[in-house]
């Protein structure tokens, strides 16, 4: 086992945390680093909207107020960035996919998701990852509205994948019959991004 991993594990054990909770090659931080390509977009909630489209029976467009009126849920999960920091027990509140799925009714062929953020940023996951009960369209973190840096007003939270799949400044969800590599995936990041398998770069 490499020294780096052992040190990170030793630190966890010191704090009474289960070392097995840390995926391979990660270290624990109590901070919440900010990472993204490009600048933080400016958003006007009066004109902001959120769309669900593609392989659905009933495409949907929601204003900010309409989105906020949907039932919400709070989830607590560990987040893991491909740049190797991990943050335990991050809490998010937002709308679970099931609330939107009931309205748009995905077509039988809908198997993949493209998350569309402000600007050109996209990320891709199989639809099953949005169906996970910890997946969220989140507007709060740790009991406060998201900060602009972390994706205010809305970001995706995708469990069980490196955090780059969790698109900040989310504006839409596209359902598709086939997988479409997102921004970081086209740049060389691993399409699957399972942090337990260390799927960081390449296929
Ligand atoms: N819109 C957008 N979302 C994004 C990114 C980005 O460049 N643009 N980067 C991703 C990456 S690489 C990471 S690690 C996480 C970081 O989220 P954080 O800044 O809240 O920690 O956001 C992800 N979501
Ligand atoms: Mo990242």
Label the CATH architecture of the domain at 49-73 and 95-197. Answer: Alpha-Beta Complex
Which superfamily, in CATH terms, is the homologous superfamily of the domain at 49-73 and 95-197?
Oxidoreductase, molybdopterin-binding domain
Report the sheet-strand fraction.
25-35%
Roughly what percent helix?
10-25%
- Output the radius of gyration: 17 Å
CATH class of the domain at 49-73 and 95-197: Alpha Beta
Written account of the structure:
With 203 residues, the protein is an alpha+beta fold. The chain has a domain at 49-73 and 95-197: Sulfite Oxidase, Chain A, domain 2 (Alpha-Beta Complex), CATH 3.90.420. The protein is built from five helices and eleven strands. Strands 1, 4, 5, 8, 9 and 10 form a six-stranded mixed β-sheet that branches. The chain starts with a helix and ends in a 17-residue tail after the last helix. The model has no long low-confidence stretch (mean pLDDT 95). It binds the ligand Nc1nc2c(c(=O)[nH]1)N[C@H]1C(S)=C(S)[C@@H](COP(=O)(O)O)O[C@H]1N2 and molybdenum atom. The ligand Nc1nc2c(c(=O)[nH]1)N[C@H]1C(S)=C(S)[C@@H](COP(=O)(O)O)O[C@H]1N2 is lined by residues 32-37, 81, 117, 121, 150, 163-164, 166-169, 184.
